[in-house]
Design brief:
The protein is α/β, with parallel strands linked by helices. The chain folds into two domains: 148 residues, Rossmann fold, CATH 3.40.50; 94 residues, ProC C-terminal domain-like (ProC C-terminal domain-like fold). Helices cover 51% and strands 16% of the residues. The chain is built from twelve helices and eight strands. Strands 3-2-1-4-5-6-7-8 form an eight-stranded mixed sheet, sandwiched between helices. Helix 7 packs across helix 12 and helix 8 packs across helix 9.
């Protein structure tokens, strides 16, 4: 039997993607951990080579450090590789997936679990219909943007790939403040999350409005917000966030090399 997509590696990200897209796509999976493979609820291959042989598109979702071993000796002729490995360049992917017709290098993120992944994709060697297939697949668990320069993938890894962890820490800090003042944990989490979601949605809706203007619209002179913003400015909050993204980018560059 032929499948739409073969999946090598069933970690958190691959499992989230399969869960969102399995109603639309026929998957076959392979993982060294059989329990993880079984938990996906889709067909299980005998091994990685068996999985690759049964689908044109192959989703590579193993850790970069083990990718070469995982694909050693497998013939990728006639296959399109979709990689979600952080820091793995197209040249490196072509080296370990010998014979692949094309590579789609993708950076998704954890909100794929609920269909809100921020996916960025760089194509090499795909025909238009193959690109269309990949875009449609990515749309099952989020949005997708096309990256024209591969070198941009490392900063995107730091921004949207690693970004959810930074956002979770920000939300925890906001919720902690409320909890320390007597608000229940469930209410603090809800209020923090809806505040973030609403604010992000407003930024998306007002694309022509600058961040400075949006910040100013909340900061009444002599009011409460401006005091908190003053503290963020004094402690270089934006620089700290920027540096977190850049440190993640640096690690992606190290993995690339």
């Amino acid at each position: 039997m032929k499948y739409d997509i073969a999946v090598i590696g069933c970690g958190n990200m691959a499992s989230a993607i399969i869960e969102r897209a399995r109603g639309k796509y026929n998957f076959i999976v392979s993982d060294i951990d059989q329990k993880k493979a079984q938990q996906t609820g889709v067909a299980i291959a005998l091994d990685n080579a068996d999985a690759v042989s049964k689908a044109k598109f192959v989703l590579l979702a193993v850790k970069p450090q083990v990718a070469a071993d995982a694909l050693r000796g497998i013939d990728f002729s006639g296959k399109i590789l979709i990689s979600i490995m952080a820091g793995a360049s197209v040249s490196k992917l072509k080296e370990i997936a010998r014979g692949a017709d094309g590579v789609a290098r993708v950076m998704p993120n954890l909100p794929a679990r609920i269909g809100y992944s921020a996916n960025a994709v760089y194509f090499d060697g795909l025909y238009d219909d193959e690109k269309e297939f990949v875009f449609k697949f990515l749309s099952e668990f989020g949005i997708a943007i096309n990256v024209n320069k591969e070198e941009e993938m490392n900063i995107i890894t730091g921004l949207s790939g690693s970004g959810p962890a930074f956002v979770f820490k920000f939300l925890r800090g906001m919720a902690k403040a409320a909890m320390e003042c007597g608000v229940s944990e469930i209410d603090a989490r809800r209020l923090a999350c809806v505040t973030l979601y609403g604010s992000a949605s407003l930024v998306m809706a007002k694309e022509n409005e600058s961040f400075d203007d949006l910040i100013a619209s909340v900061c009444s002179p002599g009011g409460t917000t401006i005091e908190g913003v003053k503290h963020l400015n004094e402690t270089h909050f934006e620089d700290i966030v920027k540096d977190a993204v850049l440190w993640s980018k640096k690690r992606a560059e190290e993995l690339s090399s």
